[in-house]
Structures are given as C-alpha cells and as structure tokens.
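Continuing the series of single-chain predictions for the mutant panel. This is the parent chain; the variants come on the following pages.
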Amino acid sequence: MHPIVRPALLPLLLFAATAWSDGPASYPLVAVEDGDTITIRVGQEVKRLQLAGIDAPEDVQNPKLSKDLERTGLPADTLLKLGRAASDHLRSLVAPNDPVSITGDLSTSDRYGRIPVQAHVAGRSLNAAMVADGYAVVLGRGPVAGAEVQKLQTLQQDARDQRRGLWGEQREAALSWSGQGPAN
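Parent structure:
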C-alpha cells in the first residue's frame, strides 16, 4: 500500500470514489422493510428507500394500511397476507449486505420519510422485478414518468394476465387492493 494511504483512510477513499464515479452509487442493504421499502447503509447512516414508481401492500399495521382497509373494505388479515407475500418476495430478490446500486437523490424524501430511488441488484431493477413478478403495482404519481412508467405498466399487465405473484395466489384480494377491477 502506498505510504500516504493509511489503512484507516481506505474506507473513506473507497466511499469517495463510489460517490464520484459515473455510474450509480452502490451501498450495502441493511434490510427489506416491506414490499417497496428497503434500508441501506450510507457511511455510518441508515437510509430508508422507497422503490420509486411502485406500491406494494402493507405488511404491518400503519396509517397506509388503515387507508387501504377503508378504501377496499377487505379485512386486515387479508391485506396483511398480501403485504407479507410482497415483503417475502422482495427478500428473495435481495439479502442483507448485498450491494444495491441506487439512482436517485439521497437528500429528498417522501411524506413517509423514504427516499424514492431506482434500485438494482446484480444489474436487475428491484422496482421492475416487483411489478413483473406480480407483487407490486405501478403508482400513477411520483418521480417516475414517461417511458419508465410505460415499461412498468406493460410489466404489470403481463404479470396480471399471466397470474404471477399476487395476481395468481390471491387474485380477488389483489384486484381489490390495487383498484384494478374484477378478475379476468
């Protein structure tokens, strides 16, 4: 090792090199919080990230679950079952300490304190995978627009048509939760 680069400075230099690189920054996954929220470590800080442009059912009692209960009329155990399935699926796609490549502004957050991002693991978009695999739906609002929204909508329709994920396992409840109408 070059005598000027002391071992204690190496992590700082590696972090700086990642931050200044041309590609998306990569950070270790801390945990999957639910089907559309993960946490990563940025230096000494843990950041909550929302997979931008998608929504997954809730897996714990919270204000959003209360809104979903009121909106759908479904029982809490049914919605929570959907949420647990979505969270479990995201956990099957990414594990603690996996490097997660992030595209997004880590200094902004949504009303739930999450930072909206595009997240990739081993070159695969977690945002798109959750929709394509049938465990999340496309949001009609937010930081994702244009061609990316169209791509996600196509993936969603294909997942629904092919009865993947929640569209097959718990179709009626998923249709009610998503607001996408009656089963085909």
